[in-house]
Amino acid sequence: MPRRTSAAIDHEIEVLQAQIAILNRREDDFVRILEDMARLRDSVKAESVALASQITELERQKKPINWLPSELLIQIFVSLAEDNSYTSADLAYSPSPVIISQVCQKWRKLAFATSILWSRVSYRCRKWSASPVCAFMNRSGSSLLDLTFSPPPYRVDDVDAATDEKLASQGLLDALNPQLFRVRSITFECTFPASMRLMVATLVDNLHKLKSLRSLDLSFATLGPSFTHTPLLEWDELGRQNLPDRPSVLTHLRLQQLPLLLIPSSLLRSVRTLELSYPSPRSQRVSQYILRMSHVHRFLSFTPEIQHLVLTETTPLRDVVLVEPSEGETESRYASVSPIELPKLRSLTWKLAYPRDVYSFMSFFGFPALERWDILVADSPTKRGDVSMLRGNHWDEPDSYIQAEPLSGVLSMSALKELYVSCQDGDTLISSLRQFLFPALEQLEFAHAGKCPPNCDHKHPLPRLDYIFRDPRLPYLTHFTLSHLDVFAGHGKLMLGYMPNLVSLTLISCTGMDNMLQALAEAYGRAMDAEHKNVRGCGVRVCPKLQEIALWGCQDFEFRSLFAVVFARAQPAGVTLIEAQKDVSSADAVSTVLGRKIRPLKKSRVAAAQGGSSPGKPHMHSPNRVSSTLIPIEEALRPVRIACVHVDDCPQITEDEALSLEELGTVVVYR
C-alpha cells in the first residue's frame, strides 16, 4: 500500500474535525432540548402540585372547622390545652398540644408558632424523663409557665414508689430552676413528704426569682401523711417568717395537709384567695401534722389582702383562748390571743364544719366586710382523737365533745348579705348559728346535705326560725330558698312573718308546702267591693312584696293553694275599698277591713321627750339595730302582684292548671 502524503493526512484530519464539530453542535442542541424538556416537566409537575393543593383546599373547605381563621383556631387550641380533664394515664405530659400538632400540616405550623400552647408543663409519672419537660419548655419560648406535678398515688409502705417519686420531683425542680423567673403557677401534689420537702426548699431558697408566681397549690394525695425522717414539722415549729421580706404577686394559695407555717410570710401578703383542706385522720400519730388554732391565727395575720377564704374539712384544734375576762381560768394553761381583723374578706366557704366549732372559729377573727357565707354543717364526731386541747366551746374533759360550756358571746355579722347553710339534721342547724346576728341579710338558703335514696320517704324537719337564729327578724331579706326539708304546720307562717320584704321564694323538693302556700294566701281582712254586693278577703298577712315563686320537685301541695296565693295578690281589694270610701277616713276604712275599731296608741314618755327635742339634734341609735318586721297596713292591703311562677317536676299540677295562672297576669314557667 503506497504511503500517504502529509497533505492527504492533514485533509483527512480536517474532515474528521469538521465531523466532530458537527457532533458537538448536535450534542449541545440535545442538551438544550433536554433542559427545555426538564423545565417543561418541572412546570407541569408544579402545576400539578398547585392543582392538587387547590383540590385539597377545596376538600378542606367542606369541613366547618376549616372555615375558622387562624387566630380563632389558636384560641381554641389554647382552651383545649388549659382543660385539665383530658389526660392519659400512659403519658407523663399533657397530650393536648402534641395531638393538635399531629392533625395536619396547618395545625402543626400553628401549634409550633404558638408558644403559649406549650406553657403548661405537667408531669404525671413517678419515673423521671427529662425529654418531654425540656421539649415543652423550649417550645414555650418566653411565655409564662404553669407547672403541674401530680404522679399517681401509691401505698405509703411502697419504698420503691417513694424513691421514684422523690427522684422525679428532684429532676423536675432541677429542670425548672433556670426558668423560675417566668413560672406563673405551681400545682404540686405528692404522696411522700420527702418530695414536698424538696418543693418547699425550692420555694424558700428562690423567693427572689418568683417574680411572676400568682398561684400556688401544695397538697398531699394521702390522708394523714407521716412526716417521719423529714424536717417539715421542725420547720413548722420554728416558723419560716424570719426570711427576708420580698415583694410578691401571689394571689391564689391552696394548701392541703401541709404545715401552715412552712410558707414564707412574704408570699402571703398579696394572697386574695386562700383554700385550706385539713381533714382529720382516722388515727393520730406523733409524726402527723395537727392543725391548731394558733397556727391558723398566726397564718391569717400575714394575709391582709385576703378576699375569699375556703375551708374544706378544716377544724383546727383550739390551743389558744381569746383575751376575755370570762376565760380567765385558762390563761395560765393556754396562750391568750386577740381577735384578728380581716378587713377585705368578702366571701367565706366552710365545708364540713362541726356545729360547736363554728362560733369558736369565727370569734377569733373580725369580718367587717364579709358579704357571703356558705357553710356545710356536719354531725359532730362521736369521739375525739385528741382531748388535750380545746375544740369549740368544749373544755378538755374526756366527754367534752358532748357537754358544752354556756354560750360565751354573740357575733354580729353586720355586713353579711348572703347566707347559705347546708346541714345533715335540724339539731346541727340550731347549734351552729345561735350565737350570730344577721342584721343586714338579703339572701338566705337552708338545704339538707344528707344522702337519701331516690324514693326515700324520710323527712328532714326544718326547725323554727327563732330556734335557728338568736334574732329571727330578717327585715332586709329578699330571697329565701329551702331545699329537701320538711316544714311543720304553723312553722311556715311563723317563718315568713319575719320576712316582710321577701321578693323571691324558692322551694326545692320540700314537704309541708301546702301550709306555706296557705299562709301566703291568708287575707289581712275582709271587705265589700265597690258596689257593696260581695264580701271578699283583702290584702295579705305575710310577704306583701313577694313577686316570684319557684316550686321544684314539691309534690305535697294542691293547685288551689297556689292559685289562692296568686289570686290574693292579683286583685288588691284594699284599693277598691279605699276608692269606694273616699269620704271616709283611713282609720275607719281599716277598721271596716279588720272588723274592729282601730284606736291610735298613746305616745310614750320616751317618744314624747324625743318629739320635744330640737330638730337639729338627730336621734342616735345603735348601728347593729335591726329594723322592725311589722308590715305597714298600707302594704298589707296593697300587696305586689306575683310576676312569675316556676313549676318544675310537680306531677300533681297539670300544665293547663299552671297556665291558667296567666289569666291573673302572672308569667308561668312549667316543666
Describe the structure.
The protein has 671 residues and is an alpha/beta fold. Helix content is 33%, strand content 16%. It contains 21 helices and 24 strands. The strands form five sheets. It has a 16-stranded parallel sheet with strand order 1-2-3-4-5-6-7-11-13-15-17-18-19-22-23-24. Helix 15 packs parallel to helix 16. The longest helix is centred in the first third of the chain and has 55 residues, at 6-60. It is elongated, with a radius of gyration of 39 Å. The model is unreliable at 326-332, 385-407, 573-587 and 604-624 (pLDDT under 50).
Straight-line distance between termini = 126 Å
Largest sheet: 16 strands, parallel
Described by the principal axes of the CA atoms, the overall outline is elongated
How are the strands of the biggest sheet laid out side by side? 1-2-3-4-5-6-7-11-13-15-17-18-19-22-23-24
Features:
single chain, alpha/beta, F-box domain-containing protein, LRR_dom_sf
What's the structural blueprint in terms of helices and strands?
Layout: H1 6-60, H2 70-82, H3 96-101, H4 105-113, E1 120-123, H5 130-139, E2 145-149, H6 159-176, E3 183-190, H7 193-205, E4 215-220, H8 232-238, E5 252-256, H9 265-268, E6 273-277, H10 293-300, E7 308-312, E8 320-322, E9 335-337, E10 340-341, E11 347-353, H11 355-362, E12 365-366, E13 372-377, E14 411-412, E15 418-423, H12 426-433, E16 436-437, E17 443-448, H13 465-468, E18 479-483, H14 491-496, E19 504-508, H15 513-521, E20 525-528, E21 535-538, E22 548-552, H16 559-570, H17 573-580, H18 586-594, H19 605-611, H20 633-637, E23 644-648, H21 655-659, E24 667-670
Parallel strand pairs: 1-2, 2-3, 3-4, 4-5, 5-6, 6-7, 7-11, 8-9, 10-12, 11-13, 13-15, 14-16, 15-17, 17-18, 18-19, 19-22, 22-23, 23-24
Antiparallel strand pairs: 20-21
Helix pairs in contact: 6-7, 11-12, 15-16
